Amino acid sequence: MQTTQPPSPASGTREIPDDVLSFYHLCDGEFEGKACQGTACFAARHFNPARWAEAERNHPRVYCLGECFAAPAKGQQRPRPPVKVCSRHGIVLGRIAAGGARSLADYVKQGGYAALQQALGQTPEKVLAAVEASGLRGRGGAGFPTGRKWRAVAQQPPGQKYVVANADEGDAGAYIDRYLMEDDPHSLIEGMVLAAYAVGASRGYIYLRAEYPLAATVLQAAIAEARAAGWLGPKVGGTAFSFELETYIGHGSYVCGEETSLLRSIEGQRPEVMARPPYPTERGLFDRPTLLNNVETLVTVPWIVRHGGEAYAAIGFSKSRGTKALSLNSLFNRPGLYEVEFGVTVRHIVEELGGGLRQGAKLKGVLIGGPIIGMIPPHLIDTPLGFEELGAIGAGVGHGGVVAFDEHTSIPDLVRHVFSFGAYESCGKCTPCRSGSGRVEEIFAAAIAGRARAADLGECRDLVTALKLTSLCGHGTGLARFAESILRYYPTEIEPCFK
Ligand SMILES: Cc1cc2nc3c(=O)[nH]c(=O)nc-3n(C[C@H](O)[C@H](O)[C@H](O)COP(=O)(O)O)c2cc1C
Ligand code: SF4
User: Does the beta carbon of 481 sit less than 6 angstroms from any atom of ligand 2?
Assistant: First the structure.
């Protein structure tokens, strides 16, 4: 059992009992200088086999450092990624592409806090209506309509309500939120204050993963600046509205990105996933109505308030409105951050933005949105980027991290890697996820070693069905989606391993 005290919330030390502490993987600073074992590093392990071997030896494991553009990565040593706006409007990445806006002065110079100033002169209902009209859907993975979630919190009776930013960004391959927070922190703060104003919340938390220490420093400085300028604290912008905001640093658990787990983590409880309903919108943090949104979702809000919901809804495609930030891994010739309008094809992302794969390698497949989502095989890369369109081929938009694999990755190796991650990060509540994912890993290890039989593949199929049907959260169902896509699109790589 771990005894070290993990990082405390910015506002003061919070005692964490041992039975809660044992849930977490990391204590303060334990990842620093460590090699990363995330999926983007796995895909790039042939570029630096020694580093990958080091990553595999790490205990506790380090799963994603958010340096996938330079994978295989090793803790905070890399330059920043290139950033490019490839849409009509740089709604999310515009300021970062222009050099960033870490200070309040730089942010204000680029139009920052104008949306909040404008909103404070209007009713909360007007802000809420703009977000509803925009068609914005959550960027944290599920694509839930943001306006509908805000309305659900606003409709709760007045009293203590919370706004929480999900800055856990655990999906290997994603480093969007990291650079938004490091280089444009006030856009998140402004988005959160607007959200609080719209739903009637007076307190907020940014739940930030420990693996992003620079983001913590930058955000805490930005919060202090915003408070000093009157954009946070009592009487925001000189009005009767108050909003207090602080950061809470996580402890290296992937599943804490799941909303119910995240809220329990802030409360200091053992962060197992909880069944819903009740949804956090009704009974969330400390049992109070809570609006929980992803960082990119919240960063989008000031633009919507400034330009109107209709202007946002005019961008994009099908039921996926607006723009999406994407982070491309190091297998591409041009890895980096890109903002695109929904509707571009996966081929456009791979070939035009990414410039194809390094060393002229052949594409074996693409994962968009983390390891627990369906793989896109080369013959389906003309599918457009859209929630429904990618969902129809078993894939998804997820968090927008784009990880390409080339012929150096054998598919059975990838399955073993993903299920090893799945087993390691399971919160343990559902049996197929807690034990089944480890069993799939074991079976694929045997298959890779030439020791598996056809019956073992049958057992894997049964376990995948159980994961799909009985998992309480997207961790288990996502593992099932990944496995289903592999069994469907790569049978010639899988079946010969089971004789
Ligand atoms: C296992 C698991 C991990 C997740 N990790 C994240 C994460 O790191 N960041 C995030 O924004 N959402 C994550 N989510 C989704 C959240 O539960 C939630 O849906 C999201 O933060 C809501 O924000 P949105 O509506 O703005 O997308 C995760 C979900 C699951 C099941
Ligand atoms: S699916 Fe896995 S991570 Fe999700 S609640 Fe069940 S055991 Fe926990």
Answer: no
64 and 164, same domain (yes or no): no
Asked if 69 contacts 90 with a C-beta cutoff of 8 angstroms, the reply is no
Q: Classify residue 5: in a domain, yes or no.
A: no
DSSP string spanning 229-279? TTSSBSSGGGSS--BEEEEEE--S-GGGGSHHHHHHHHHTS------SSSP
The reply to whether 420 and 399 lie within a common domain is no
pLDDT category, 497, cuts 50, 70, 90? Answer: very high
For residue 431, the domain's CATH number is 1.20.1440.230
Here the tokens at position 200 are 């009637």
| CB of residue 276 inside a 6 A radius of ligand 2 | no
Q: Kindly report the backbone phi and psi dihedral angles of residue 124, in degrees, each rounded to the nearest multiple of 5, phi listed first.
A: -55, -35
Domain that holds residue 62: 18-70
Which one, of 424, 446, 442, 443, lies nearest residue 434 by Cα? 424
Q: Ligand 2: does its nearest atom lie under 6 Å from the Cβ of 437?
A: no
96 C-alpha vs ligand 1 centroid, how far in Å?
23
292 strand-pairing partners? 164
Is 398 a pocket residue for ligand 1 (Cβ < 6 Å)?
Answer: no
Q: Please determine, for residue 11, whether its predicted confidence score (pLDDT) is greater than 50.
A: no
pLDDT at 14: 60
- If you measure from the C-alpha of residue 144 to the centroid of ligand 2, how many angstroms do you get, rounded to a whole number? 20
Which ligand minimizes its atom distance to the CA of 180?
Answer: 1
Same domain flag for 234 and 308:
yes
**Residue pLDDT, tens place only, 414-427:** 999 999 999 999 99
In a domain, 76, yes or no: no
Task: Indicate whether residue 430 lines ligand 2 (CB < 6 A).
Answer: yes
% pLDDT > 70, the chain: 96
In a domain, 278, yes or no: yes
Ligand 1 atom index nearest CA of 474: 31
pLDDT at 238: 97
Ligand 1 binding pocket includes 140 (Cβ within 6 Å): yes
Number of domains in the chain: 4
* pLDDT computed for residue 370 by the predictor: 85
> pLDDT digit string (tens) for 132-189?
999 999 999 999 999 999 999 999 999 999 999 999 999 989 999 999 999 999 999 9
Provide the CB-side half-sphere exposure for 63 (13 A, CA).
26
pTM, two decimal places: 0.96
Closest ligand to Cα 258: 1
